């Protein structure tokens, strides 16, 4: 049996998250991606905050990543990070 080395050349989720935040989040803000499931999607609502956009970047609020009319809710909550 010959030795084999596997190279994984795809981007990891950490790199994707870093690139997304660099391109879409305002400086001093941080985001958290959340996935929720509800068998009764029309009866369950996720608390949302209106998105605040500053210089074409998200400063705070909630952005849905998929249409709201299904059982899954995938969204990003963005808030200000005042510790910097």
Give a structural overview.
By secondary structure, the protein is α+β, with helices and mostly antiparallel strands. Helices cover 14% and strands 35% of the residues. The chain contains one helix and four strands; from the N terminus they run H-E-E-E-E. The protein has one helix at residues 13-24, and strands spanning 29-37, 52-54, 57-64, 72-80. It has a four-stranded antiparallel sheet. Strand 2 and strand 3 form a beta hairpin. The longest helix is centred in the first third of the chain and has 12 residues, at 13-24. The termini are far apart.
The first-to-last residue Cα distance is 54 Å
* Number of helical segments with 4 or more residues: 1
* SS class: alpha+beta
Shape: flat
**Strand content range:** 25-35%
Q: Major β-sheet, in short? A: 4 strands, antiparallel
Helix content: 10-25%
Number of strands: 4
SSE order in H/E notation?
HEEEE
Contiguous runs where pLDDT drops below 50 for at least 5 residues:
none
Our Rg estimate from Cα atoms comes to 17 Å
Instruction: Please state how the strands of the largest beta sheet are arranged side by side.
Output: 1-4-3-2
Mean pLDDT: 79
